[in-house]
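Page 42, continued from yesterday. The earlier attempt failed because a stray header line got pasted into the input along with the sequence. Redoing it now with the clean sequence only.
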Amino acid sequence: MTDFTRSLEIMVDAPVHDVFEYCRDPHHLFEGWPALEVTDVVMTPEGVGTKAHIVGRFAMGMILEQIDREYTEFVPDARIVSKARGEMRFAGRTKDVANPPTFTWLFEAEDGGTKLTFVVLEEDLAWWESMLEPVSWRAMSRNLHSTLTAIKTGIESQASPPA
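This time it went through. Structure tokens are written below.
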């Protein structure tokens, strides 16, 4: 079994605390990814245990993925880690997603702003999943770039004074 870790980052023109507070809401963590709909968010004051249901529609709606994602680690102004469980429906069949990726969001002060890093960890992939991972990552990374850009835009537009 093989593990893969991939990451993307973006600079946000806002203090770490502001970026972290914006991202503690799961709705914001999936902005900019039109195939995903975040519903049934339950936020906890301490962060750990915050949950969201995410519905993804792919391949022109032929694939439906339903994921329940939960914050399992929450370090204010530093890190949010979420794990998932879910199922996928395709061609009339439903199958559990055997090993969904772990998502980690890292927040670091840099050059007067915040470096926001998104890390995807896929663990214990079977040999055939390892072979498909580079192709899967290329497709996913396009959406993740859009997501990071949407987060940046959302945060920076809140910080902008009205004209």
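Notes: The chain has one domain: 2-159.
Reminder to self: strip header lines before submitting.
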